[in-house]
Amino acid sequence: MENQFPIDHLGIAVSSLEGALHFYRDQLGLTVTQRETVAGERVNVAMLATGESRIELLEPTETDSVIGKFLEKHGPGLHHVSLRVPNLEATVERLRAAGSRILNEPRLGAGGHRYVFVHPASTGGVLLELVEAHS
Ligand code: ZN
Q1: What is the CATH number of the domain that holds 105?
Q2: Which of 25, 30, 79, 88 could potentially form a cystine with 13 if both were Cys, beta carbons 3.0 to 4.6 Å apart?
């Protein structure tokens, strides 16, 4: 398998999905490919196609959720960068062995993708999501 790590999506925290869609969908003209509520993350998600990758809009369902707290602290904005990796388990193992801070065990997120987050302390200050590529 090729060892490529394309950008899967950019995660943007917003206070209102409809407000953000008014720009990204209605004004910019991107297509919404997926909408769902991820109960475990307490977030409403809208995915927009941007060619090779996607934009993920994240609206908290509760103020004390991860995205709710992010909004309170930073306001709306870029929340994370997501890279697609060929083998999530192997990548996580390699990073752990090298001392990187993995924030969760691989789990299912929006669209049924398995993912982990890597702490910004390990990545140059950006919350990094690693998503397993569909085989
Ligand atoms: Zn994401």
Answers
A1: 3.10.180.10
A2: 79
